[in-house]
Design a protein that fits this description.
alpha/beta, 13 helices, 277 residues, single chain, Rossmann fold, Arc Repressor Mutant, subunit A
């Protein structure tokens, strides 16, 4: 990817050239940055960054980051940054658990309780909740939906990008949308969140701390703080942090409507008990 940038550089217009120079000079930092941060640091726009990425033969910025990471990092880092090829099993387990614990600790400090209170109020007020997630965030969205239903909140999870777009466009002002996105720059969830906001829904984003495109479309932001570079094939520690945010949100919602939540949990428990031998 860096070779492609060098080959294209002489023929790039000023703005694209400035972005290309920034990426080349700061390649090791760029794999940790969002498209918003690259745009700000290079004095350009998010659209200009994405346009350059497409000229390089990539679908978007994320694909460029992955390609640069492959040029720069050891292959084992695509599994987990802290791991080394000669780590024994005990070391692997210790490193994974320690990184998960660190993500939980950091997320607790990063979580804005005022934003959490606003999310609780928005969901309680809403006629229904739409939950969006793509890729590794899809399982978190499904879990959030399940937990919301268990405490009596009308909820639906959508993890298909086309259905997300349709669902978001059909939102109304009495709907709350909960979007899960670690990077905050996944095209599908960005589109769905934007469409939902334009339709008048209250939008809530669970995303990693830092500047990202989704902040432009989120009314309420619940930050995780997971130390991932986003060049792994799948998110790892971010899932733990996202689940903790969802747990805190569900607990706060249940306590806010305690009697209804308990009654619904009991009723759904009776139904689910018929599924067990």
């Amino acid at each position: 990817m860096l070779d492609r940038i060098a080959a294209l550089r002489p023929n790039l217009p000023p703005t694209a050239g400035r972005i290309a120079d920034f990426i080349t000079a700061n390649a090791s930092d760029v794999v940790h940055m969002s498209v918003t941060e690259v745009a700000e640091r290079s004095g350009s726009s998010e659209g200009s960054v994405i346009s350059l990425c497409q000229q390089l033969g990539a679908r978007g910025f994320q694909q460029v980051k992955i390609a640069i990471a492959r040029d720069l990092v050891q292959p084992v880092q695509f599994i987990h940054e802290d791991l080394e090829p000669d780590d024994d099993l005990a070391t692997v387990v210790e490193k994974i658990f320690q990184s998960d614990l660190q993500a939980l600790h950091d997320t607790q400090k990063a979580l804005d309780l005022g934003q959490l209170a606003r999310a609780v109020a928005a969901i309680r007020k809403a006629s229904r909740v739409e939950v969006f997630g793509i890729g590794s965030a899809a399982t978190i969205a499904e879990d959030a939906n399940y937990r919301l239903l268990r405490i009596g909140i009308n909820s639906r999870a959508t993890v298909d990008s086309h259905v997300q777009a349709i669902t978001a466009a059909l939102c109304t002002p009495d709907v709350a949308v909960l979007t899960i996105s670690h990077s905050g720059s996944t095209i599908e969830t960005l589109t769905a969140t934007r469409l939902a906001k334009e339709a008048g829904a209250t939008t809530i984003a669970v995303t990693n701390f830092g500047k990202s495109p989704i902040l432009s479309y989120a009314d309420i932001v619940l930050n995780t703080l997971a130390r991932e570079t986003q060049f792994r094939t799948e998110a790892m520690t971010s899932r733990i942090a996202q689940l903790a945010i969802i747990d805190a949100l569900i607990a706060a919602l249940a306590l806010a409507d305690y009697d209804r939540a308990v009654a619904t949990i009991e009723r759904t428990f009776d139904v689910l008990s018929t599924k067990r031998v």
